[in-house]
Amino acid sequence: MQIARTPAALAAALAAARAGGRTLGFVPTMGALHAGHRALMDAAAAECDEFAVSIFVNPLQFAPHEDFSRYPRDEAGDLALLEQAGCRLVWLPDVPTMYPPEAATQIEVEGPARGWEGAARPGHFRGVATVVARLFGQLRADRAYFGEKDWQQLQVVRRMTADLALPVEVVAVPTVREPDGLALSSRNRYLTPPERALAPLLYEQMRQAAAAMRSGVPVADVLAAGDTRLRQAGFTPDYFALVEATSLAALPVAQPGARLIAAARLGAIRLLDNLAID
């Protein structure tokens, strides 16, 4: 496994990885790797000759009051997991490498970036789109793998990639869950034991809401009931909504391809999840 920390080292490693026209998959991460990231790597390994992983905690996607400094970091543990997964190349840039002082470009996505996470975290998707575009330019992979857990982010990346005609295929990988249904996230490690015991209720409420919508209960009633149950259980929801899967536009009625999306705070941790209703 080659570890590149400079653009020159990355260029040399990419030349070796792609020798003979080999295809390259790419998994962008912020580290603190878990089984969800491993699923992305497994998908890349199954579809590409080689795959690369980046680890970069991106300051542009954190607001001043958010947890950039507290975001979990475990380089040694991450590298051990990557080697076990058969990763050929790890890109570990620092902030000046990703954002040189003379850099003057950031990417603003409209469409699916509006509302929901875009409203709750102003500037977040600008940071996501900017770093992903830079990573795509640096790695020049054939395919890039993203988890469905961050559904809105996935749609923003797809929209940005299509609009800028970037030569990479964005591949979605299903959400990986704990046995009790909680979607895997690097931030889950910060849940207290009582919070961790309660956290799967978010997914359970989404499953119940999807079942109610499929049975014909009006969407507005289902969403209001789900929000109320979460609050009564101790969550603080930011949204509990039904949206069109690609545009993220709110839907008043259930339709094929619709997606439930939710974000709720539990103690100091903000949980995100989503579920296709069909």
Q: Can you walk me through this structure?
A:
The protein is of the alpha/beta class and 278 residues long. It folds into two domains: 172 residues, HUPs (Rossmann fold), CATH 3.40.50; 91 residues, Pantoate--beta-alanine Ligase, Chain: A,domain 2 (2-Layer Sandwich). It contains ten helices and nine strands. The strands form two sheets. Strands 1-4-3-2-5-6 form a six-stranded parallel β-sheet, with helices on both faces. A three-stranded antiparallel β-sheet has the order 7-8-9, covered by helices on one side. Helix 6 crosses helix 7 and helix 9 packs antiparallel against helix 10. The mean pLDDT is 96.
Name its key features:
278 residues, alpha/beta, Rossmann fold, Pantoate--beta-alanine Ligase, Chain: A,domain 2, 2 domains, 6-stranded parallel sheet, 3-stranded antiparallel sheet, 10 helices, 9 strands
Gyration radius from CA atoms, angstroms: 19 Å
CATH level-3 fold name of the largest domain: Rossmann fold
Mean pLDDT: 96
How many discrete domains?
A: 2
Distance between the termini: 41 Å
Estimate the global geometry from the Cα principal axes: globular
Classified by CATH, the class of the largest domain is Alpha Beta
**CATH level-two architecture of the largest domain:** 3-Layer(aba) Sandwich
Strand-residue proportion: 15-25%
| Strand order of the biggest β-sheet | 1-4-3-2-5-6
As residue ranges, the low-confidence spans are none
Q: From the helix content, strand content and strand pairing, which structural class follows?
A: alpha/beta
Sheet with the most strands? 6 strands, parallel
The helix tally amounts to 10
As a percent range, the share of helical residues equals: 25-40%
